[in-house]
Amino acid sequence: MAPLRLAANLAWLFQEEATLAGRMEAAARAGFRAAELAFPYAQGAPEELRAAAEGAGLEVVLLNTPPGNQDKGDMGLGAVPGRQPEFQEALALAVKYAKELKCPRIHIMAGRIPMGAEREAVSAQMEATFIENLRYAADILVQENLIGLLEPINSRITDPRYFLTTPQQAVAILKKVGHPSLKLQLDIFHCQIMDGNLTQNLETYFPLIGHIQIAQVPGRHEPDSLGELNYSYLFQLLESMDYSGYIGCEYKPKGDTLKGLGWAHKYWGSHGLLHDGS
């Protein structure tokens, strides 16, 4: 069984560094060889970020589509009716960054239910919009040899208005679109909160999973912090399934990022992969 590959989410980890380039260097020194950048668009031109990643020896493995106007409450545009032209512009920018950064995966953010609207009243229209936009995206992604990802985000703790909330909902949409360039991004933190049943969900949806992220529940801290999830078991399960993708470390460090990485160094060390940057 091949060991799992870990990626540092630099929107969450190494915030001790003021710049994204500094976080890349810090992640590499800590032993990471891959990174998720989330929203890199305001943090440098794609050529500059590529040079920073290459200088640090990091592979960029995931970024998100631009969120839209966050000052007005946007968190993605994929399922938001009437904003298809803005979605297409956002996707084009994400593809530009992904190609320059040699990043193979783009998380296509669904967006939020409009303020004041009832979820049940708008779900059908939002799903239809999402399917329309995903079909448009898939045609572009396949030409660029990129993978688009759908990530359910829990509505109980993190974002009550986010449209896509469960793996079941995401998989149903993926099946309706029916395109191999689109896959499931399964964040175990969100999945546990909304549905639990992690072993069966991982096994059931494994053929559609293109990326996995981790954090402890409920605090969203280090995987070995006190909480509901046994990551030693989950890592062993994923290894036994021959998961070959990346595990994105998308959590809030309790303190200094580096001091909280004992769990990762324990995993790396147990597989003969430990690199302390010295």
UniProtKB/TrEMBL annotation:
UniProt cross-references to Gene3D superfamilies, sorted A to Z: Divalent-metal-dependent TIM barrel enzymes
Pfam family name, one: AP_endonuc_2
Superkingdom in the source lineage: Eukaryota
EC number annotated for this UniProt entry: 5.3.1.22
The keyword DNA repair belongs to this UniProt entry's keyword annotation: no
Protein name stated in the entry: Putative hydroxypyruvate isomerase
SUPFAM superfamilies hit by this protein: Xylose isomerase-like (SSF51658)
Xylose isomerase-like TIM barrel domain: residues covered: 25-264
Record function comment: Catalyzes the reversible isomerization between hydroxypyruvate and 2-hydroxy-3-oxopropanoate (also termed tartronate semialdehyde).
Catalytic activity field: 3-hydroxypyruvate = 2-hydroxy-3-oxopropanoate
Gene giving rise to this polypeptide: HYI
Keyword field: Isomerase
Enzyme class: isomerase
GO terms, molecular function: hydroxypyruvate isomerase activity
GO terms, biological process: glyoxylate metabolic process
Classification via InterPro entries: HyI-like, Sugar_Epim/Isomerase, Xyl_isomerase-like_sf, Xyl_isomerase-like_TIM-brl
Family: Belongs to the hyi family.
Catalytic residues (UniProt): E151, E250
